[in-house]
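Mods, move this if it's the wrong board.
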Amino acid sequence: MDLRGNRTVRAHHVAMAAAIMAVLATSACSAGSSVRPPAASVPLRDRLRDGLLTQARLPHGLKLMTEQIDSTTTGAPHTLSTVPLASMPCSQLAVSSFMTAHAHPVEDVAVAVEQEHIVGDDYGWFGQESLDRYAPGRAAAVMAAVRGVAQRCTAYTDTLVDGSRTHNTVSVTRADERADDTLVLRVASTFSGDTDPFITETGFVREGDVIIMVQKMVARKPKSGVETVLSPAVAAYRAATAG
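Not the wrong board. Structure tokens:
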């Protein structure tokens, strides 16, 4: 996918939105309901869904894409790959569904997030939050595998569908000091002869057997990073699971 130019990047955002809509399978969305049964009688998947971001927790200027799509999905994985996360191609790091495809959570829920108003050359904030639940003890191994991929893929070249090539570098930082395990993975992609990279970011925070993941899709000179949504996403999950 060619990421060059404002018009092309906007088209990329539209394509990503379509991809997210396709990936997020249908399930009943109860975001508008204010009455829920007692916690003991709520299925696990609904309790996991309650840990997703709400509009009230998002920073000003961002909104959930609940009008365009059914915002949650349960019963992961959607698209299975026989290639484990540790061995997946480096190019998959910038694909929104790489965790469900290669890490195979027992269950996941997700919601898309976008910036309400985009002005001038600002590509805005566009991405998604997901909560992936794993079998007991498995989430820690998944986080280790993500780090392993990042270490293996510090620099790689990718060929796009139009035949152009991108040169990519991957960096990792820590995201949340309170979490059991956490990291932010950034992929910087440049075209030959171009020194101004496009950035794709994924933030991970592990809370027990659940991995909170926020992905910010490609942007050039982003005005805000993945942490803009990752921090309120973590707060929403902790509030929902407190006690």
